Amino acid sequence: MTDAHVTESLTLRLKQIGARLEPVLEHLLARQPLAGETCRPDRLVEAMRYAALGGGKRLRPVLVAEVACLFGREDDGVLVAGAALELIHCYSLVHDDLPAMDDDDLRRGRPTVHKAFDEATAILAGDALLTLAFDAITLDEVHADPAVRLHLTRDLARAAGLGGMAGGQMLDLESETRARSEQEIRQLQAMKTGALLRYACRAGALLADASAQDVERLTRFGEIIGLAFQLADDLLDVEASAETTGKATGKDAAAGKATLVGLMGVDATRAELEKLLGEASDLLAPFGDRAAPLLALAEFITNRDH
Amino acid sequence: MTDAHVTESLTLRLKQIGARLEPVLEHLLARQPLAGETCRPDRLVEAMRYAALGGGKRLRPVLVAEVACLFGREDDGVLVAGAALELIHCYSLVHDDLPAMDDDDLRRGRPTVHKAFDEATAILAGDALLTLAFDAITLDEVHADPAVRLHLTRDLARAAGLGGMAGGQMLDLESETRARSEQEIRQLQAMKTGALLRYACRAGALLADASAQDVERLTRFGEIIGLAFQLADDLLDVEASAETTGKATGKDAAAGKATLVGLMGVDATRAELEKLLGEASDLLAPFGDRAAPLLALAEFITNRDH
After folding, report:
1. Which three-class secondary structure state does DSSP give residue A72?
2. Do B160 and A131 touch (CB under 8 A)?
3. What is the pLDDT of residues A31-59, one digit of tens each?
4. Residues 99 through 158 of chain B touching chain A, CB cutoff 8 Å
5. Which value does ipTM take for this structure?
6. How far apart are CA B134 and CA B156, in angstroms?
7. Which fold has domain B3-301?
8. Please, which pLDDT band fits residue A188 given cuts at 50, 70 and 90?
9. Is 1.10.600.10 the CATH number for A3-303?
């Protein structure tokens, strides 16, 4: 395929998976209570829907779906697991935007949840999105075997929590007042953004009953995606305008936070991105043409300008 | 047994279960990362330990353990499930105390987490405690059957989330600016405090492989405990001094929040508590003397002065 074809086909796949994901999220965020729930308070469910519906690239669910597809699983149960991961991602954005955290007023070109509602509602909406993710990942359609769902649940908790995303955000906040070495920045980014992207790829393989060896292979692919995503994000933060990204940029520098781009320079960062892309390609080589969509996604993440 | 004997034996059991719970929590909140975690940042793990270790009545884990014991299960796996529930309870206290929520400076006679650390750390510590709970509830020692652990996980999410505790806190916050009927207050309390107490009793029965009928019986017992707990708490809020409870009192009235005691009066509240205790006793009657500790616990909750 030519580059143009790859891009066109990737855009189509992103759209298709996004379109299948939306009703799954809509169903999870229904206004009617589920069995075992008393009621779903209007204001809270609206804030959660505001945070989770109708926006974003849905990169994490797309990764889950593409990896599962690589191993032959394409049903909507995969998207329920993807939705669980997306709920975690959305909760993290809601809490990270709070005044006590990154203090952002805009997200995806719209007021952040605490601006559109209020701080207390934003805190609770984040809490409830996080909790709902652990409801979704247990649902029967995710996988026929309860042991697999339990494995996915535990891995999700580890990717999202103290030793993963939440821990990474803690380290990132501390970076505003403490100098970080390159190794420390790599570790905090592996936690803050890397852990969920790694989980997305790992979960896709687990969902499709991939061999233990392939689960590890795709887990490594996810780690590469995570690092590439962050490096590309750092480049954007340096280079892009607020107009393109729909959020404030140059914030890392303004907050005094060291980034890998800042330490390594733009050229070395671009070189590392190329190297990562090569490693991703090598990892997917055994799967031949079937891995083309995943590889296109890796390239999209590496070269994205928004 | 005389009343004095019951009280003495209850106090001993509370102490014993609390002493067995502490190392379980300590293990979950270890400073070393688990498999699948990168590292556990010092500041975050310290804030979580501050919030969860060495304090509180441990009422929810005690309920889990006593109900499981009623059905013949007494091993420490029960306390791992109890610890998961306690982590959820502790996270809710950390977030409820935040300036944007109830804005409390004291908890159990100590500075609240956002006072001892800072707001961002308190938000993240709450998030990470909540997430860790969903790690703990999946652990092998909780139950040999993954399907049971999955059931416990999903029920925990529903008790804690949008349609349970978090939803109840949303309704409670709205009560500061909106009048509530008695029925609305009952619903919000059933969610805010009732849902976790109900889950504690239900989980105890599920953990010990109780019959479906007994699971429902103990679930109902948990609902009664939840209501009695809240009524007793409302009475305390009206009557007790800050000295006895270690937290600010009379806050509900100050915040303009209607309570059941406020609507029904003290005498009617006491009468309802007696009635609830009678119903709890009837529910436990089939279990004879074996239910004495649980019944003593119900009485303790109904008559507590702190």
Report:
1. coil
2. yes
3. 999 988 989 999 999 999 999 997 788 99
4. 100-101, 118-121, 123-124, 126-128, 130-132, 134-135, 138-139, 146-147, 149-150, 153-158
5. 0.94
6. 8
7. Farnesyl Diphosphate Synthase (1.10.600)
8. very high
9. yes
